[in-house]
Design brief:
This protein is mostly helical and 78 residues long. It is built from three helices and no strands. The longest helix has 41 residues. The N and C termini lie far apart (64 Å). InterPro entries: VbhA, VbhA-like, VbhA_sf. This is Antitoxin VbhA domain-containing protein.
C-alpha cells in the first residue's frame, strides 16, 4: 500500500511540474508577443489582425515560432 501511495505521489508531483513548466512557457510566449506588438506600435507599424491572430495562437502554444515565421514568410513572399 505504501508503494502505491508513493508512486501516486510521484506521478502527481511530475504532473504538477509539467503543468507549471507549461504555464511558465505560456507566460513567456505572451510576454514575447506583447513585446513584438509594442515594438511594432513604436515603429509606427502596428501588427495586422492576421498577424495578431498568428501571435495569439503562438502565445497559446498551438503554433511554434517556426510555424509563425513560415506563415509570415508565405504571406509576404506573394
Amino acid at each position: 500500500m505504501r508503494d502505491i501511495r508513493e508512486k501516486i505521489r510521484q506521478e502527481v508531483q511530475a504532473l504538477t511540474e509539467q503543468a507549471n513548466a507549461a504555464q511558465e512557457a505560456r507566460a513567456q510566449r505572451r510576454a514575447t508577443v506583447r513585446s513584438v506588438q509594442r515594438s511594432a506600435r513604436m515603429e509606427g507599424q502596428p501588427v495586422s489582425a492576421q498577424t495578431a491572430a498568428l501571435l495569439d495562437r503562438y502565445a497559446e502554444g498551438t503554433l511554434s515560432s517556426d510555424d509563425v515565421l513560415r506563415q509570415l514568410d508565405q504571406r509576404y513572399k506573394r
